[in-house]
Amino acid sequence: MKRTALSIVLQTISCSFLVLLLTTSCTNDETEQVEKQAENNISTNGIVFAGFSQSDTTTRTAIFDHTKNAGASVNWSNDDKIWVKDNTNNWQQSGQVTFPSTTNKSEGMFALSGAYTKASHSVVYTNKPISGTNIQVEIKAEQKQSAPNNFDHAGVSGDCGVAIAQKSSNGYRFTLSHKASYLCFIPRSHNSYVNKSKLIKIEIMSDNNIAGTYKMTENGNLTFDSDGSKTITVTTESGFDINDATENMNKNAVYAVVAPGIHSFRIRYWLRNTEDCPSGPIEGTVSKYVTLNCVAGAMNDITANLNPTDYDGDHYYMWDAKQQYWYGYEWTKKLAEGTGQTTTSLQNPATTFPVSGDQRYYNETFPGFHISNSAIQDSTKNLPNVNEMTWYAMKGDPRWDDDELWSAMGHLYKGGMWFYKKDNIANYSKTKAYDNVNYCNISKECTNDKLETGLPSIAKAKQYFFLPALGNYLSGRLNAIAYYGFYWSSSGNPEDNGYGAYALYFNSTKAFIKIASRGYGYRVHKFE
């Protein structure tokens, strides 16, 4: 058997590359054994093709023993068949593979009926029947993996390959060259919420087609044909553990077949957690981005540290207060219930919320009607003013994300909004609102209830920033966390004697600018 090479491309989220080669070969004794077995299986009206599954990648073959940076082994699966072009240039399908050795399934034999007398015949391995000269393969948009670090779904998921079978004394021999591309995901995490979760699926989103039906030439070139999909989802059976801070492929490595090409990916690792969300079990994503050159016959190893963003409880403020809402009573002090900061909407309110005269209490300044009333405290003065907030709400392409996980005050949540960064909002202004009016001197609200659905495109993802739906505090109770976001602006209301201020609100259906009582505990947060 010819020496074959498995090309492995290592790719981390930081986009550094490493290309390695792993070679495998068969001994002369193995070759002779295949030929003897072939001779014993040839009938008077058929011929046997002895095939070797090249360690180049996968097909309806099974890939196993993959080690990061070090290659993999490729076997034929028990129900594999091949297509061979006969003397009349018609494609004929073989019977199911048989094995000369039950301990070595990288070598298989395929019996075919018909006439095969040429020095060589073309061989195709695909998961779709061949009609006439139309060779196709379907790379599945929905793939399933039964166990960690197990790629036996490669063939049904869209692996494919070609070969030239050369005539030998006892039939024909060929070595399969694989023509799909392959991904191996190797997640890890030191995050306690992730460590207690199960990896239930990986959603691979691309800026171009990575699945669908592809035409395949006899030399293995793939071109898109129909039923394209820019998303591939690999589901696991009962979920894989991610409870190691270091990589452990035997616990959670996940594989996918993808179309060759240069792809920019959004990779969404879907987790199920049954312990850390106050409202019950939660399923959500931790997303990563990477661009890869997915070479035919190569596997890309993708490592990722899954660490949902954590938001502290120290950035809830009454409007323009000197100190945060729970200063001195922080949840991290583990004070008695009713005294310390509440961390879920299910808890009874604490009686230690800010009152007049407290440095945690809001700024009551009112300079006069229709006079701009800007914040003066460090907590609030550098926030966007109300004019700027209108640009985010009305022209910032707000998009609700119901899936991305984040944590706050010891609990796991999801839900939030993506907004354009100000540099990507046309005509963004501090002095005029989106409608060319200066809201700083009047009382006026606005609502955007015509939101675009779906996440920002992968190509534009870096143009957005994320605000979690962190809820608010009122009279010591936490409200609407995971459902609403409430974010103060630096602008007080110029028409209500010092009781109101402007804030950005959002939920899953709208983003809006509203005048709210300064006594609410809303978030103060840097806008991008």
Write the topology of this structure.
Blueprint lengths: L3 E9 L4 E8 L3 H14 L4 E8 L8 E6 L3 E5 L7 E3 L5 E3 L13 E7 L6 E6 L10 E4 L2 E4 L8 H4 L3 E8 L2 E8 L2 E8 L3 H4 L2 E9 L4 E6 L5 E8 L1 E11 L7 H4 L1 E5 L2 E13 L8 E13 L3 E8 L3 E3 L4 E2 L55 E2 L11 H10 L3 E10 L2 E10 L25 E3 L15 E5 L3 E3 L2 E3 L5 E8 L7 E7 L4 E7 L4 E2 L5
Parallel strand pairs: 1-22, 3-13, 11-18, 14-22, 23-26
Antiparallel strand pairs: 1-2, 3-8, 4-5, 6-7, 6-9, 9-12, 10-16, 12-13, 14-19, 15-18, 15-20, 16-17, 20-21, 24-35, 25-32, 26-27, 27-29, 28-34, 30-31, 32-33, 33-34
Protein name: Fibrobacter succinogenes major paralogous domain
Keywords: Signal
Walkthrough of the structure:
There is one protein chain. With 528 residues, the chain is mainly beta. The protein has two domains: 46-307, no CATH class; 310-523, no CATH class. The chain is built from five helices and 35 strands. It has helices spanning 28-41, 154-157, 192-195, 249-252, 386-395, and strands at 4-12, 17-24, 46-53, 62-67, 71-75, 83-85, 91-93, 107-113, 120-125, 136-139, 142-145, 161-168, 171-178, 181-188, 198-206, 211-216, 222-229, 231-241, 254-258, 261-273, 282-294, 298-305, 309-311, 316-317, 373-374, 399-408, 411-420, 446-448, 464-468, 472-474, 477-479, 485-492, 500-506, 511-517, 522-523. The chain has a seven-stranded mixed beta sheet with strand order 7-6-9-12-13-3-8, with helices on one face. Strand 1 and strand 2 form a beta hairpin. It is elongated and about 100 Å long. Mean pLDDT is 89; it is low at 1-45 and 54-61.
